[in-house]
Amino acid sequence: MARNRNDVWQGTLALMILKTLEALGPQHGYGIARRIEQTSGNRLAVNYGTIYPALIKLEQEGYIASEWGQSNNNRRAKYYKLTRAGTKQVQKEARDWEQTTAIVARFLSPESGSSS
Amino acid sequence: MRSLRAFLLRITGLFGGRRRERELAEEFESHLELHIEDNLRDGMSPVEARRQAVLKFGGLEAAKESCRDRRGLPFLETLTQDIRFALRILRKNPGFVAIAVLTLALGIGASTAVFSLVNAVLLKPLPYSNSGQIVFPWRQAPPGLNLGYNDLPWGRIEFLFLSQESQTLQALGAFKSDSFNLTGSGDPARLDGLRASAGFFPALGVSPVLGRTFTDDEDQPGHEHSVVLGYQLWRDRFGGDPAILGRSLELNGDAYTVLGVMPAGFVFPRAQEMPGSFTFAREVQLWIPLALSRGALIPAEPSELAIVGRLKPGITVAQGQAEMDVLGQRLQAQFPQAKGWFTSHLTPMARQLAGETRRPLLLILGAVGIVLLIACSNVASLLLTRSLGRKREFTLRAALGADKRRLIRQLLTESLLLASFGGLLGTLLSAAAIHFMKILGPSSIPRLGETALDFRVLGFAVGVSLFSGVCFGLAPAIAGTRENLIESLKEGGPRSGESQATTKLRDALLVSEVALAFVLVIAAGLLAQTFFHLLSVDPGFNPARVLTFELSLPASKYTNQDQIVALYQSALQKLRGLPGVESAGITETVPMGGATESTALRIPGHPATDPNDRPYSNYTMASPGYFVAVGTPMLRGRDFLESDTVDSVPVTIINSAMAKKYWPGEDPIGKQVGPLSRLYPAATIIGIVADTKRLSLREEPPPEMYVPYTQKVWPSLLTMDVVLRTKVDPVSAAASARDAIHSVDPDLPLANIATLETLVDGSMTQQRFAMFVLGAFGALALLLASIGMYGVISYSTMQRTPEIGIRMALGAQRRNVLAMVLGHGSRLAGLGIAIGLIAALAMGHTMASFLYGVQASDPLTLAGVSLLLLAVALLACYVPARRAMRTDPVIALRYE
Questions:
Q1: B772 Cβ contact partners less than 8 Å away, ≥ 6 residues apart
Q2: CATH code that applies to domain A2-111
Q3: Which residue intervals of B72-193 are DSSP H helices?
Q4: Torsions phi, psi of B152, nearest 5?
Q5: Cross-strand pairs, A82
Q6: Where are chain A's structural domains?
Q7: d(CA B771, CA B247)
Q8: In sequence order, what are the residues at sequence separation of 6 or more whose Cβ sits closer than 8 angstroms to the Cβ of residue B825?
Q9: Of A108, B419, B574, B601, which sees the most CB atoms within 10 A?
Q10: Per-residue H/E/C for B554-615
Q11: A7 interfaces chain B, CB cutoff of 8 Å
């Protein structure tokens, strides 16, 4: 069960990372983690460290690319950006996710049986 | 696609680890710095800012670990890690490794060698196209007729009927053995040939490398003067000349045209592949059309044909058999005058070619499986003992967070590593064993020469190694890691630390080892007894100092009975005159030299009984002096005389089995008997000789009648065996015998020169091979089981040292201690023997057919082997028991 929840987390995390990169442009790991936390209205309180395996996976799949750069205050950091495949993948994943949530929502809404 | 890309990247991720590791550390460091800066900006103190950043990040090492997992292939990495660790552990215990690897190598090596044999004989595809469709229909001996073999030849009429009526067979060929004297091109030579009908080659699905085979046109009486050559004959005798096609060869004095040459290796049929009722040559050198007449049945026509057929596509052997049964009934109705035996059995080719070897091979395969199991359980109990010694290590690792599956995997890696070493060494051993098997194995095992370490055999070795690795590794791994963590970590927990379950597992392993070894030793013991029974059995002749050879007179030169008889008479006279020769005779086939004719009988004065139970007997020709030469005792009456000729009263000598069967309680001497056909006159019985074993020492001799070659007899006198009893070493008489024959006819070749002892010996080779192999496996099983017993008992005695110390301190005598340890061992051994006994009795009927002169449930063997095993077990326990006996109570207690 714990494993399953982790899988779901990893899956949604990937989408959140992609969406964040789409919104912010190139960003380092700390920035992405921070942004995800803020966007969630601080409701997602996870360790920042968990984002890195997800970043590696996305990079291996070719959706994002990374390079070392300078931060605003002249600090060296590794920056991630969407690749072209990644841009397409954001659209697709977002669509899939909307569909999935819409379906799940129907099951969860109490009037689902009578209203439709 | 994406996942493939990721996978490939992960494989490359296995390398260059150090640079990535540094980069990851840098990235995390910069992450923390960024976070700390933000925190400082929010007004935290530097210490608090760092603390919060680190806290928020989570476990630094855990994050690195999961990044590493994600980057490379964690499975492969753990595996290499496990292997490295296992190698380190194993290197620390060279003694244990040596014993385990050697035990496994013996088990795996023996199984691989046996499998290579099974592979060559039973599994390798045959060199015939769609060989699964090729079948051999054999006539079956009627029930109650014990000839030592069940597959009998067919007659001409039955073959013609089958080829006309069968709907399930698409090609059908008949064949019989024949030999030919090749003259006119180089030295005269006797060639082993086969007369085959036109359907023979299509049924087998073989094509010549050169020219063609016979057509129906050549397979006609009067048109059969054509020949297909074997590859070896063509190469050795005719230099592999392709211009041989169309050339004329002189065979038996007639001209035969060469039609084609068969491919190398095609020598079908080999004698060893065909039933015992036939006398085929070892390898066929040429094929001649059979040219059967299509005419009506001739009374008492000989039945001497073998048949091969090819089932139509989609027809199963069972369907073919069903049709044969129906056709048999129709034959019975249509030809009531023919011999009334029409039950048949269809044998698929693969099984036919494996011949008599199949069942002994399966027996040996079973035996080697037992050896392997014993080896595995030995190593398993060794591992079990070791895993207990390593309990602290496992406990510590579990406490540090290794999960249980991970520990089991580690242990399995170790055992698989052991198994691979064992497999490697075992494969080397089996290569040596195969080498020796090829040299020493009986030539009667078909395709023995093809035994090799091919891919299939190597695959088997790998499979067996893996199987045994898991087999002996899994149970100890599970048992070794099942212990309660807390209990074991507690200081002052039970020192011996052995749970009830592990003790039980170890005892169970030992008991099963003893039971398995018991079964194997019983089988070996029974086979050995069979062998010695056979050696001491009276064959009805005396094989010592007897030389035999075959003479084959060319039909073109010896055209009538008188010429033939005259030749044999003068040859016998010359042979008897040789200084080293004690007596000489001729017969159609010497004992152990092959089957003879057999015939249905007519016994005047005995009314024809039930047509399904007609009297029959073997029917053999012999010369005066033959019985003396071969050493068959004359029980009553007289031998043949030179004066028994065509012009005198027909006479016959019968064996005692025939006398008992057809004249029970009567005196057969002076009675009349003859072949069923009226073409041959009934003969007067003038003597009774002892029964002789013809094909194997285990057969029950059937009724047999001998007729003098000097009186008109069938079938042909052209090929006869000469028997010389010598005063000296029979082999040394061969040269002078050849000179004597050549002084009568210089063109006559002597074939199959052998001593009677070699022939008898030859009939025993399979028996001997099976006995030696099983004996060796039995000894190996015994050795392995006693090693196992020694290991288990000495370990458990060591575990009980404190207990023994207490007992002795409380006044137990040394012999009490001895009895206690020996009692433990003999209880286990006794249980194993009891289980083995039940198994051996249950397997009795499987063994029965391999035995002669001894019952599978032979109480003496069972008791003897039980005692042997018990003695071995006690011996194995004695050393640890003595050690326990010498225990000094003080030291033992301090140990606690």
A1: none
A2: 1.10.10.10
A3: 74-91, 94-118, 156-165
A4: -115, 160
A5: A64
A6: 2-111
A7: 51
A8: B789, B793, B873, B874, B876, B877, B881
A9: B419
A10: CCCCCCCHHHHHHHHHHHHHHHHCCCCEEEEEEECCCCCCCCCEEEEEECCCCCCCCHHHCC
A11: no
Angle between helices B60-71 and A51-60 (to 10 degrees): 20
What is the Cα Rg of chain B in Å?
38
Closest of B677, B693, B686, B676 to residue B707, by C-alpha: B686
A21-78 pLDDT, tens per residue? Answer: 988 889 898 889 888 888 887 777 678 888 888 888 888 888 999 888 887 777 888 8
CA–CA separation, B894 vs B102, rounded Å? 37
- For chain B, give the mean pLDDT: 83
Contact A47 B63 (CB under 8 A): yes
Percent of chain B whose pLDDT exceeds 70: 90
d(CA B490, CA B483): 12
Res B399 pLDDT > 80: no
Q: Is A72 on the interface with B (CB under 8 A)?
A: no
Q: Please tell me which residue of chain B has the smallest CA distance to A85.
A: B2
pLDDT band at A114 (very low <50, low <70, confident <90, very high): very low
> Strand pairing of B672-675 and B651-655?
unpaired
Instruction: Report the alpha-carbon distance of residue B825 to residue B790 in Å, rounded.
Output: 9
Q: What does B443-480 look like in DSSP terms, one character per residue?
A: TTSTTGGG----HHHHHHHHHHHHHHHHHHHHHHHHHH
Rounded to whole angstroms, what are the CA distances from B482 to A62, B89, B202? Answer: 44, 21, 65
Which residue in A27, A25, A19 sits closest to A94, CA to CA? A19
Q: How far is CA B376 from CA B233, B364, B470, in A?
A: 51, 18, 10
For the sheet with A76-82, list strands across it: A27-28, A76-82, A64-70
Please give the Cα distance from B811 to B143 (Å, whole number): 73
Question: Exposed, middle or buried by CB within 10 Å (0-12, 13-18, 19+), for B732?
Answer: exposed
Nearest CA of chain A to the CA of B64: how many Å? Answer: 8
Chain B residues closer than 8 Å to A62 by CB: 2, 5
Query: How far apart are the C-alpha atoms of B571 and B743, rounded to whole Å?
Result: 8
Q: Which of B9, B37, B58 sits opposite A50 (nearest CB)?
A: B58
Residue in chain A lying closest to B4 (CA): A61
- Kindly report the three-state secondary structure assignment for every residue of B77-96: HHHHHHHHHHHHHHHCCHHH
Q: Which two tokens stand for residue B327?
A: 């056709």
Name B617's bridge partners: B599
Residue B659's H or E segment, with its range, is helix B656-662
Q: Could you tell me if B212 and B229 are in contact, meaning their C-beta atoms sit under 8 angstroms apart? A: no
The ipTM estimated for the assembled molecules is 0.84
Which residues make beta-bridge pairs with B260?
B211, B228
8 Å CB contact between A21 and A64: yes
- Predicted confidence (pLDDT) per residue in B644-664, tens digit: 888 889 999 999 999 998 898
